[in-house]
Amino acid sequence: MYLIWCTLFLASQINAMDNLRVAFEWKVVDFLYPSQEERSLALQNKAFIPENNIPMGLEVYKDRLFITIPRWRPGVGASLAYIYLNDTLDNPVLRPYPNWEAHKMRSNDESPEIVSPFRIRADQCGRLWVLDTGFTDIAEDTLRDLRPPRLLVYDLHNDELLRTHTIPLDQKNNDSFFANIAVEDHDCEDSYAYLADLNKPGLVVYSWKSQSSWLVKNNYFHFDPLAGALNVSGVEFVWSDGIFGLALSGPDSEGFSTLFFHPMISYNEYSVSTRILRNETLASRSFHEFKLLGSRGPRSQSGASFFHKKSNVLFYALINLNAVACWRTTNPHYDMISQGRIFMSNETMVFPNDIKVDNEDNVWVLSDKLPIFLYKNLDYNEVNFRILTAKVADAIRGTTCDSKLVVIPTIVDKIKPIMKNNELMMNTNGNSNNMNTNRDMRSSSNRIYHTTFVLVSLTVFAILY
Ligand SMILES: *[C@@H]1O[C@H](CO)[C@@H](O)[C@H](O)[C@H]1NC(C)=O
Ligand SMILES: *[C@@H]1O[C@H](CO)[C@@H](O)[C@H](O)[C@H]1NC(C)=O
Ligand SMILES: *[C@@H]1O[C@H](CO)[C@@H](O)[C@H](O)[C@H]1NC(C)=O
Ligand SMILES: *[C@@H]1O[C@H](CO)[C@@H](O)[C@H](O)[C@H]1NC(C)=O
Ligand SMILES: *[C@@H]1O[C@H](CO)[C@@H](O)[C@H](O)[C@H]1NC(C)=O
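^ Protein yellow, sequence as received from the core. Prediction below:
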């Protein structure tokens, strides 16, 4: 019996994995200049060096897909740009956001409006939150801070700059690097932005209403020294990035979200209520309110993450495994076997760098071979940057994150006689095609499902690794 169920679940898992499709891909990026002459001039005076432009962060809002192109090296056209969702799959040309003016490099004492954002977030109120690191030539000896790190907020209805907030000096130091942002937007007038400083490390909380920010420190923001060695497609390197992945749940009955977070160099996932983070005094006094959820296991260093409110599923990038995975946040267990594999490929998913879910429940992933760009050389004759997508329901179907594990009909027919005789199963599950994993896992009288679940998860994880 266990064996049959095991095969059944495993079959459906294999069938459902790797459901993302490539929506856009680039060998090298290009920008839409006001005219051919201006593009030629930019190429000529090295204001634009195409092979130094690497897409990194992404966001989707209505008909536009936004991309950040940080200034790792000289010659970045514009560090924030967009394409239209109806653009061509191959090499769609990037349009500067909000316009060319905001990216213009001027004389030494006048920096562009936007210098070098790593990540952005469009909220449900129609605002685009841009977290600008302020650095230029990040991968060069000529690294400079053109501006202090800033938060810029644009109105997506007319692309006008609504507000800028410079991170105050007492909330950062010279090592600070603000690479990721999450926005709590249940109340448009009382929204909060959470800004991760991966190097200090720290979390700066910004209140839209009070137009002020404060710094939260915690031991869990630090990197794990045992997890620093990475190997991506044979490129070996050591990183020491602290707090990075930030994902906010929907509001609880009092209006507070849960922030799921992790350092990039770590195998662990943590959580804390924004009830704590939103109150500076409370945040500094409440160490035990920050919870360790568990460990994902070896080689599971994770970058970006995103919480999908309708399914309660946390999506996250496995940067050292060329994979995207998921965890159902209603699952009481957080360990290796409770993770679901969404997509894994040493070709199209080399370094998944950002993940978002849009308002129409499409999950989007950007992969960009960053370690090869930084430590070797990209081959510009092949595809280097990709954006992959799927409906959330399709992406998680059949994984441990699915609330309805879909059973393959042919196998169902084979085991129907057994199912009919199984009183236990009929009692807990009126519809044999739809099984609620979480409910089953929680039911103490239903050890059979848990056992099956564990067996299947183990097998699936074996495949993942
Ligand atoms: C693509 O979308 C943009 C913005 O919605 C629109 O202006 C444009 O006409 C569309 N192009 C095509 C070919 O449908
Ligand atoms: C930080 O940088 C500023 C300006 O570059 C410099 O004056 C200051 O000494 C630095 N502080 C530390 C602690 O390195
Ligand atoms: C890194 O990965 C490559 C294969 O991609 C492998 O040959 C090499 O041994 C790995 N290095 C380490 C230190 O594991
Ligand atoms: C923050 O928390 C402290 C300690 O619980 C409390 O005294 C204070 O009123 C709170 N502040 C706000 C603005 O809620
Ligand atoms: C990708 O994986 C396939 C199958 O495991 C393997 O044959 C191939 O060598 C790998 N390619 C790289 C670049 O690691």
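Confidence is low (pLDDT under 50) at residues 1-15, 406-455, 458-465.
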